[in-house]
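Example 3.2
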Amino acid sequence: MFKNIFPTSWPLLLILLATSIISNGVYAGCYDKRSPGLDWSGCKKMKKMLDGEDFSRSNFDGANLSLSNLDNSNFTGASLVKTDFTRASFKRSIFSQTDLTKSVGYRALFNAATLTNTRMLKSEFSRANFQDSRLSNVDWSRAELGRVDFSNASLNGVNFEYSNLSRAIFNRTKLANVNFLGAYTFLTRFENVDLSMTSQISQAQLDIACGDEKTRLPQNLQKPASWPCEDN
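Structure, written as tokens:
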């Protein structure tokens, strides 16, 4: 009797076990201790206090970190592809050689954060705050960046190709080697900004943007008659 049961039951048990592993494997490390190199891919970490941590070389792909506090944390070499940072805080955090491709950071706080050699293409950071931040060699192409606040930030080697920068704020922002090719600049605020060291910005982009008497332009471009813009 038993000889007839086990040969037919074991394959079924193995299939059920494999299915369980596959369905739950993405959450396998969600309760691992915080440390460099951890795997929190696909994990839900909303409304958590995660500030002051070393997350270098860690994997957050597809994770949900919305409304969490990650201030003063280190994300060097980490992967945050398709990660949700909605309304999360990353003040004074470090991102170096970090991948944030297709991540979502609506109203996220990156005040005084440092981002170097980082990928942020096709991401969505509408209304995020990058005041006083430092960005160097960042690929931020084809992204949604409407109303992002870059006031007093320093941007060097940032690529905004074909990104939506409508109503973004660059007030007193330092810009060097910043690429605006094809970027949408409707009512983008360039007051008190030196644009002379940027590249691929066109007269048409300036005509729909906002500036003032302190805005410096590249050669052969003119300040539009509509400047300064009315409050909007």
